[in-house]
Amino acid sequence: MKVFINDKEYDALPEETIIQLSDRAGIHIPRFCYHKHLSVVASCRMCLVDIEGVKNAQPACSTPVREDMKIYTKSKKTKDAQKSSMEFLLINHPLDCPICDQGGECELQDVSLEHGDDHSTYMQLKRVVLDKDVSPLVSTDMTRCIHCSRCVRFGEEISNVKELGLLNRGEDMRIDVFIENNITSELSGNMIDLCPVGALNNKPYRYKARTWDLRERSGISPHDCLGSNIFYHTYKDKILRAVPKENPDINQTWLSDRDRFGYEGIYSKDRLYKSLIREDNKLIELDKQLVVEKACELLKNSINKSGPDNVGCLISPQSTNEELYLFQKLFRELSINNIDHRTNECDFSYQDNYPIMPSLGSDLINLESYDNILLIGVNIKSEFPVLSIRLNQATKKNTKIHSINFDSSDEDFSLVYKKTTNNNELVSLFLNNTHMLDINKSQKTLVINGPSISRLHNQSDVLSVIHKYCKSLKADMGFLTDHCNTTGAWVTGNIPHRDVGGKQLNKIGLNSYDMLKKKLSSYVLYNLEPELDFHDTKLLEDSLKESKCNIIFTNYLTPMIEKYADIIIPISTYAETKGSFINIEGKDQYFEHIVKCNNNIFEGWDVLSKMYTGFNLGSYKQHDELRKELIESINGIDHTSVSLSAVKLTNNYNNDSEIFFFSRRHLYRSDSIVKRSKSLQLTLQSKEQNIFISENLKNKFDKINSEYLNEFNIRDIDKRIVVNKNLSNNTIIFPSSTFDDQCVIPKSSNIELKL
Fold this sequence. Notes:
Elements: E1 2-5, E2 8-11, H1 18-25, E3 48-51, E4 58-59, E5 69-72, H2 76-89, H3 107-115, E6 138-140, H4 150-158, E7 164-167, E8 174-177, H5 190-194, E9 200-202, E10 215-220, E11 229-235, E12 238-244, H6 257-261, E13 275-279, E14 282-286, H7 288-306, E15 311-315, H8 321-332, E16 339-340, E17 372-376, H9 380-383, H10 385-395, E18 400-405, E19 417-420, H11 423-431, E20 445-449, H12 459-473, E21 476-479, H13 486-491, H14 512-517, E22 522-526, H15 537-546, E23 549-554, H16 559-564, E24 567-570, E25 579-582, E26 588-591, H17 604-614, H18 623-634, E27 660-664, H19 678-681, E28 691-694, E29 703-705, H20 707-710, E30 721-724, E31 731-735, E32 737-739, E33 742-744, E34 752-754
Parallel strand pairs: 1-5, 15-16, 15-22, 17-18, 17-20, 18-19, 20-21, 22-23, 23-24, 27-31, 28-30
Antiparallel strand pairs: 1-2, 3-4, 3-5, 6-9, 7-8, 10-11, 11-12, 13-14, 13-24, 25-26, 28-31, 29-34, 32-33
């Protein structure tokens, strides 16, 4: 249909509003309450426009266009109406721009300059609203609030967590938390972005810098596999805050708190800024110029003495594609085949049938096209907060979401079916078709396997029965992985049985668990934290203790590294290097440096390149050269084929007396950087210290006997045991949380139950 704006003709879409058309046409209309992802309330009246034939100015956000409508955004009627609205909105605003963190990027400030007046008819005393400490992440200055209700609607419509609301009416109206609770949503930081006036601000960033002092750099989320796009703002070459970079295909305009505040961990006090080598059983500082030479010498001696089959190489899937590619290439050309990134796993019999490039099975933007989505072994709310927004949107498009999980945590979107189970019962459910899901072949279905499955001792069996179920329904099967670049780690060949691009190897090496069980003579650990990233921490410690040579590339100096490393090489974090991650959709996303690397720290790809040269294998002088070779190696990968149903079941599932241990992996303990973010560790979610047991264990339970936990001198551990009626029988769930300021991630292999 034809619509005229300022006497110029435009083609409008059916049911389009004036503000939507003007935005599409690049015509600015001021607004406060309107946001393209939120419902329309038309409360601020700032978007009033003049419409021919209509007596009063109308709100552009709620007025639909019609054929031959004539709209004027710069007429006298429009300007007078907007000026009056602006005057009204500023009645109670304190006008404290010089001290406000929003100053310089404040919508109220900008709009008042362009559309406001230089005087006001309202001269009475301004109201004052007392502020509350509602979150360690969000600061409040509610006297500035203009009641646009964006933050309230975000909680009701996007995050589905109704924590803020409008209280009272008229002059007494205020936005506040209900029943004196804190804001606990994993997406709470988005309310800072939505607030147009500085009533809600970034608490860790508060008073750190002015907007005009900041430099903006693009980055990719290093904390989960979705690959959210981020703008990092730096001052004096230090990250001070992170905000979402709009990407309609991935994170839209949203960002999880983990991605927004996780960068603080980069500046942790245990960050390593010097190279160390062990001499006379003591670690001494090593000149940066000698590091590569010494590392090559140690590794060469180890290979000469024990052979390449006695060297185990383990790398974190938090590493960039370029680091991952060069890591495996370096060691494979040294005839070392013991290469793996799956340090949190213990069952690997599935690996030959696993997809070459594990993916979600669907693009994020297409999730709402499914009739059914089945989630297995994942709590989306805490592990993938941005994905919870997508699933919440899908439920509003009539997608039915089902969940089968190991704990009873609630989601932020509606579930039509929810079951709590254990890993043995899960296999039985699918073997005997007793899962009670109302799904048929005619419906479009997606089954998503969560990261919890990868940590099960019978992972292969679980994946096998789930894939058979998918085949019977003709459903798509996808995966959500533990780390930001797990997909990249598979593609680049950081596994013992496949080369780059999924090519089968003639000689298969050891998986990560077997490397530790066999007590090899040497270990190379890259970007891994021993206390955090391994399935069996005790087994790892024993292996490092007995090995003759431990070469460790790390961001942080942890107690175990300090105790067992023979040479420690400090490497860059994601913010201090350039590279790429492959997200769970299979999208390769490249990023540049956000901040400079400390002079004593190596960029990961660079130190690996120098070692490559040190062994006379060649050289990569430029990152672009390395990236070009990587892209050529993985180009054209078929990541759709999966044959997991061919995996034969190995376990007996008739034993009802087995005790099942699960670790509730908290989103603020997901990786070494996040767990060091001070602000995130102050949140209520990080304070969970209870141990949950199923009801049938209530009367049998005596105490937990764990040397692993006792190492942390945990007081009154038995008092933290809580019976959870929703848990499956014989189940115990530990928090991956803080016990008396110590980070503990219990693993089933480290825990014994005394009954």
